[in-house]
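Severity: low
Component: inverse-folding endpoint
Summary: output formatting inconsistent between runs
Steps to reproduce: submit the following structure tokens with default settings.
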């Protein structure tokens, strides 16, 4: 049987290592600036281009829509793991889709700065059954090398386009937050940096990447909304 503690801790580590890998392949983290993604062919077919293979059909029937508002803001959820019949472990990320323009899809997420830390056995089990409103938020955190359970602080990650973000998976789900003509890219980066500067201690069950994604949406005036799926930490406001 899968150990719930290992599932939670290992999922956080895999997400962090995945984020670090994508950063080295063209994304950015921390203080990096936003960039633009490449434009698709206008088709939703996987055969029309390498980026289209990662284009979630759930968001629209086409790559771009020039009669639509310029920007569509979307919350995505990706399954990381779980324990059968008990719970599933999900990771949230925010997409800013230039649906009415170039088709670029800048993507915002977060991960622990020290992904090799081990949350231990009792911490995740207790945290998973505890309400987000009861979980403490520790700011100004400095990683303690002597603490094997210290996963560091919450660190933002930004990829210029969803297709290169490492967040795509076939069973992802998405929910539209808002359509508008306003580009929130500057605000999204500024608020990501602001949360980075707080150096909030990363905890697998929250505050975590789910806390970051939901708080980022709220900070730029978008609704706190997520797709269906267990996402511990999503109720924590940063």
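Observed output (run 2 of 3):
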């Amino acid at each position: 049987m899968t150990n719930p503690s290992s599932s939670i801790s290992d999922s956080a580590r895999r997400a962090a290592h995945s984020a670090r890998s994508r950063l080295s392949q063209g994304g950015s983290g921390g203080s990096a600036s936003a960039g633009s993604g490449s434009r698709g062919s206008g088709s939703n077919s996987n055969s029309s281009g390498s980026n289209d293979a990662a284009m979630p059909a759930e968001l629209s029937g086409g790559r771009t829509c020039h009669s639509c508002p310029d920007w569509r803001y979307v919350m995505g959820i990706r399954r990381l793991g779980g324990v059968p019949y008990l719970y599933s472990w999900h990771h949230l990320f925010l997409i800013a889709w230039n649906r009415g323009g170039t088709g670029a899809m800048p993507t915002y997420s977060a991960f622990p700065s020290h992904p090799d830390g081990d949350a231990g056995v009792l911490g995740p089990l207790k945290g998973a059954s505890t309400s987000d409103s009861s979980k403490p938020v520790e700011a100004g955190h400095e990683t303690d090398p002597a603490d094997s359970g210290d996963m560091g602080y919450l660190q933002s990650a930004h990829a210029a386009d969803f297709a290169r973000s490492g967040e795509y998976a076939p069973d992802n789900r998405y929910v539209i937050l808002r359509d508008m003509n306003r580009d929130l890219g500057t605000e999204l980066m500024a608020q990501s940096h602001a949360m980075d500067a707080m150096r909030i201690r990363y905890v697998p069950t929250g505050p975590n990447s789910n806390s970051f994604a939901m708080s980022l949406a709220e900070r730029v005036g978008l609704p706190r909304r997520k797709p269906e799926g267990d996402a511990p930490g999503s109720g924590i406001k940063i």
